[in-house]
Amino acid sequence: MDLEILEIASNTENHKVLKKHTHQSRNKNPLCGDEMEISLMVKDNIVQDMGYQCRSCVYCQASVSLLSRWVMQVPIEKISDFVSKAELFFDENFDQLKKINIKDLKDFKKIMNSKNISRKECLLLPFKTLSKALKL
After folding, report:
1. Which fold would CATH assign to domain 3-133?
2. Where are the domains of the chain?
3. Is the pLDDT of residue 92 over 80?
4. pLDDT at 118 over 80
5. Which of 95-123 are b and which e, b meaning 16 or more Cβ less than 10 Å from the residue's Cβ?
């Protein structure tokens, strides 16, 4: 296992329960049983706060850790665009992602790449749960 994935997953600043949230969703990966819950505080179509809880593998934990830090103060429209294209990380030609102007694209690319294709569903579970929470 890549030590970088462990390092990213160990950042748990948003692993918390949001008591006051405007959006929430639970999701489960039917292939491996990973479970994810995401709560969001959205005001004026901008994510103000995000909390997550999960019973999952380290790949899923790393993905949700990055995603939870990225969504802060981001408009829903930009989140929708990014989430809808997340599968492109696993395609070597991910130029469409560059067009979104994601500030931490290189951080996502460290874990979401063709080398980790066998863990694709684990890595995408946080994106799918976020999309479900925001009804995108």
Report:
1. Sufe protein. Chain: A (3.90.1010)
2. 3-133
3. no
4. yes
5. eebeeeebeebebbebbbbeebeebbebb
